């Protein structure tokens, strides 16, 4: 047996996305743009290293030109 919120919540979300959001979004979007003017994702991390996009830095600070992983910690037989 399925609980009532497991049925009601998806149905309400579908009704909102399908019918209410196209009406409400144009009204609230100018207000939201005033508060959220920054971009959501910003580049952080390697401040001292510049990347030209050809090399990927690995976790152990080893860089490979073709993007393959250098497994220095694996045991060999």
From TrEMBL:
Any Pfam family the entry gives: DUF4512
Please give the coiled-coil regions recorded for this protein: none
Q: Which domain of life is it from?
A: Eukaryota
**Sequence ranges of Polar residues compositional bias:** 45-54
What are the start and end residues of every segment in region (Disordered)?
A: 45-77
Tell me which family the UniProt entry assigns to this protein.
Answer: Belongs to the UPF0729 family.
Q: This chain belongs to which protein, by name?
A: CR032 protein
Q: Which organism is it from?
A: Channa striata (Snakehead murrel)
Q: What is the phylogenetic placement of the source species in the record?
A: Eukaryota, Metazoa, Chordata, Craniata, Vertebrata
């Amino acid at each position: 047996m399925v609980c009532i919120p497991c049925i009601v919540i998806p149905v309400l979300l579908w009704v909102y996305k399908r019918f209410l959001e196209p009406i409400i979004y144009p009204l609230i979007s100018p207000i939201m743009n005033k508060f959220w003017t920054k971009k959501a994702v910003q580049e952080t991390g390697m401040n001292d290293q510049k990347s030209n996009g050809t090399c990927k830095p690995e976790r152990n600070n080893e860089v490979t030109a073709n993007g393959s992983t250098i497994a220095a910690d694996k045991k060999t037989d």
